[in-house]
User: Which sequence fits this backbone?
């Protein structure tokens, strides 16, 4: 997406006009314009010059946003891009306008209505008083000339905007008052005192001036509030230091951040911010990463650890090598995501856009009809004109245009501060509408790394002795399960004995010699072939397998020492996060490549609604497609093999800032590895969507009630009559109210589940929807690895009537789901043809 800065826009009608103009350029596939940030995002192959020309032809101006890959996103140029330049200018205009307006109001209303004193020159000199009011109004109109320039320019381009309504209203009031002044002058020359007094009451100079002053006040309040909506983004931009301390040949030099290159060595002292992403070469420290992840507890960093730009070094001196600089840093990517999201448009904004496109011409037509209708009804020109002016100035397309983008910007900023990054406005809106959440098991529900869960020594041995034997044997193994045992032993401070003649044997076994004693380790199948295993120990092993754990047996000199169970354990916050999603009316599904028994054990512990087991990496996408038939689906994953499923889902969430491919494919990125951020993201999306609905309701209802009131529809029924000055005041407050309401999102507690809507889940699980099926469990001898599993699985699933087969070499079993009756002999033959033996079928 190429981003542009657009100038000259004042309301939603302007954004609609720019979008229409740019969308008509050949090669443009999509265009979204944000009134909030005065930015435009364009996708396609169109030339930038043609796009800018289209914007200029529409009556506005545009320029490409600069993106220099050498710069750091924390530089002042980025912050300046979001600097609030509108408020100071509008404040000056307002102060000047109010100064002259107070004098005008004193003359026109103070003296006329309450008899406040004036210089003797004005006594009974109504023409002089009229001329003074005219001059004061002209000064205020000159101060606020931008309304007239922009308004009449938009009329010239046949794309009237909000400024056109203000300009027409003020011009009509001023023009009619000027006519009345000349008519009064003629009456005074002719000595017609009654006519003079009559025309004196036809002056609307103060209305024209008050309209301009009040609209300027509203614009200033709106600009100030709009500035606050980008506080989160500006805060992120200020995180990165402006300089870095490099270590060059043993000498420390301070250079601007733009001069840091990949491979440079930099040093960071306690209390300093880390300038770029890097890897620790020397030293250790605790780094506060709350600015990126929202996690308040500092993270320990040692040699080999990664550090990110914008984070704070709390303690310890560290030397690091720069690995990512400029726009490649994590901080820069976060800022880019938030910025890109602000340049996109949520689907809910389309309703407001359609209305905004025809709003101003419709209002002008209503104003003309109002004037004509009152004149036909027999009212004076002044009365009819006042009603028409009121219609023009009370109408507010700005509130419609701001209703969605301000809420999206604040919601996005809130997410970024808490480590939840929505890539687009669409993802922020759709996340809260989900009905199904599919969770990849490994790394999402579980830690993603095996851990020792149980140690069952045989009688006469202690857990420490069992772990020492296992540690000595497994230390030389590179298997992930071995890493779990060595990690546990190191945590307990055990020293590993030095083994000799270490070998990894076929059939999931290890052997070595320790001080002359033969050590063996491996699966039940491997150990049971070496020595007899008591039934009691075998039973405990089977229970561990049913719980989704992998039991490893260890022997010493032909004597069984015990079992150590290893499993990818569930994260502490996973069950609570799943429960919160279920309380929000969401159906939670777990996807895993494990066999049915292991998967169900983990699914039960986690508390998910449905388990889909035996899903191969390339099969996740097809599972997501099936789930989408039931409702809106969120897919949560962290690995490279999750990317297709993340893309296929309605919303893809990459958790823990996992693989780069997963991040690229995802719509939402969670900086932390906590599953609890998934319900938090859904909660924030729903709160933002609720805020948008409130804003749109206010914007629509304001105009639905305000325009008829200004036109005088209620005069005959209720006697309600709206002065143009009060109409201008109402218009000023409408946009301000919408922006202020959006700012309330800053106080939203996204991790608080107390206010979640407990909607009863109406989705049926897959098993409920399917016809009743049969299952058979085959005991198979000879399988030793994942390839064996794959051969057996393919052979069984190739049979007519077999829906799926879950095969595990660890349990030496295959669970076959049948759609129709198949004889045991057919199943045995299919397995035997692959070189394996079926010993039992249940």
Assistant:
């Amino acid at each position: 997406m190429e981003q542009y800065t657009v100038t000259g826009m004042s309301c939603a009608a302007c954004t609609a006009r720019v979008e229409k103009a740019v969308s008509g350029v050949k090669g443009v596939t999509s265009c979204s314009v944000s009134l909030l940030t005065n930015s435009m995002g364009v996708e396609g192959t169109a030339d930038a010059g043609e796009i800018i020309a289209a914007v200029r032809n529409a009556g506005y101006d545009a320029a490409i946003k600069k993106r220099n890959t050498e710069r750091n996103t924390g530089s002042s140029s980025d912050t300046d891009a979001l600097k609030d330049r509108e408020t100071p200018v509008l404040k000056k205009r307002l102060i000047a306008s109010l100064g002259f307006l107070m004098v005008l109001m004193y003359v026109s209303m103070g003296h006329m209505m309450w008899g406040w004193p004036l210089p003797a020159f004005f006594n009974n000199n109504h023409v002089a008083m009229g001329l003074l009011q005219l001059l004061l109004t002209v000064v205020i109109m000159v101060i606020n000339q931008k309304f007239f320039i922009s308004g009449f320019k938009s009329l010239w381009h046949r794309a009237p905007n909000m400024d056109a309504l203000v300009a027409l209203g003020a011009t009509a009031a001023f023009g009619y008052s000027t006519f009345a002044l000349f008519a009064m002058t003629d009456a005074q020359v002719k000595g017609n005192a009654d006519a003079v007094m009559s025309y004196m009451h036809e002056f609307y100079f103060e209305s024209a001036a008050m309209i301009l002053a009040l609209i300027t006040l509203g614009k200033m309040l709106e600009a100030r509030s709009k500035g606050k909506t980008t506080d989160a983004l500006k805060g992120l931009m200020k995180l990165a230091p402006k300089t870095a301390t490099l270590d060059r040949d043993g000498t420390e030099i301070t250079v601007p951040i733009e001069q840091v290159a990949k491979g440079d060595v930099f040093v960071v002292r306690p209390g300093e911010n880390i300038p770029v992403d890097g890897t620790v070469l020397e030293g250790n420290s605790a780094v506060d990463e709350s600015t990126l992840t929202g996690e308040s507890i500092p993270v320990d960093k040692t040699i080999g650890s990664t550090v990110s730009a914008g984070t704070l070094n709390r303690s310890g001196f560290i030397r690091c090598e720069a690995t990512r600089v400029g726009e490649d840093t994590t901080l820069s990517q976060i800022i880019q995501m938030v910025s890109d999201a602000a340049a996109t448009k949520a689907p809910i904004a389309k309703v407001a856009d359609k209305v905004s496109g025809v709003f101003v011409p419709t209002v002008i037509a209503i104003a003309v009809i109002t004037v004509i209708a009152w004149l036909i009804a027999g009212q004076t020109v002044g009365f009819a004109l006042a009603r028409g002016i009121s219609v023009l100035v009370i109408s507010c397309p700005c509130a419609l245009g701001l209703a969605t983008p301000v809420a999206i910007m604040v919601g996005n900023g809130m997410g970024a501060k808490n480590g939840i990054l929505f890539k687009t406005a669409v993802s922020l809106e759709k996340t809260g509408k989900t009905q199904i959440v599919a969770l990849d098991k490994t790394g999402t529900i579980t830690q993603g790394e095996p851990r020792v869960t149980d140690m069952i020594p045989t009688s006469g041995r202690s857990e420490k002795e069992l772990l020492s034997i296992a540690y000595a044997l497994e230390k030389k193994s590179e298997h992930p399960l071995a890493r779990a045992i060595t990690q546990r032993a190191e945590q307990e401070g055990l020293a590993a004995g030095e083994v000799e003649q270490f070998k990894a044997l076929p059939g999931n076994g290890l052997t070595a010699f320790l001080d002359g004693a033969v050590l063996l380790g491996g699966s039940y199948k491997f150990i049971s072939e070496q020595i007899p295993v008591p039934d009691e120990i075998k039973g405990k092993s089977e229970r561990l397998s049913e719980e989704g754990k992998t039991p490893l047996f260890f022997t010493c000199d032909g004597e069984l020492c015990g079992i150590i169970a290893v499993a990818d354990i569930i994260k502490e916050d996973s069950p609570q996060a799943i429960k919160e999603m279920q309380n929000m009316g969401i159906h939670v599904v777990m996807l895993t490549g494990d066999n049915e028994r292991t998967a169900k054990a983990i699914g039960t512990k986690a508390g998910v609604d449905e388990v889909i087991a035996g899903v191969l990496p390339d099969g996740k996408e097809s599972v997501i497609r099936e789930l989408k038939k039931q409702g809106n689906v969120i897919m949560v994953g962290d690995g490279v093999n999750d990317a297709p499923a993340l893309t296929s889902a309605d919303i893809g969430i990459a958790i823990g800032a996992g693989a780069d491919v997963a991040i690229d494919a995802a719509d939402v990125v969670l900086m932390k590895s906590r599953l609890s951020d998934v319900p938090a993201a859904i909660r924030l999306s729903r709160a933002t969507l609720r805020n948008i609905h409130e804003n749109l309701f206010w914007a629509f209802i304001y105009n639905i009630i305000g325009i008829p009131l200004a036109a005088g529809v209620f005069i005959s029924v209720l006697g309600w009559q709206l002065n143009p000055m009060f109409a201008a005041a109402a218009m000023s407050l409408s946009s301000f109210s919408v922006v202020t309401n959006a700012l309330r999102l800053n106080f939203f507690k996204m991790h608080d589940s107390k206010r979640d809507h407990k909607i009863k889940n109406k989705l049926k699980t897959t098993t409920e929807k399917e016809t009743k099926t049969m299952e058979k469990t085959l005991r198979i001898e000879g399988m030793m690895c994942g390839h064996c599993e794959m051969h057996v699985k393919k052979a069984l699933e190739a049979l007519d009537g077999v829906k799926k087969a879950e095969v595990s070499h660890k349990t030496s079993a295959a669970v076959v789901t049948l759609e129709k009756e198949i004889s045991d002999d057919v199943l045995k033959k299919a397995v035997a043809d692959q070189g394996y033996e079926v010993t039992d079928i249940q």
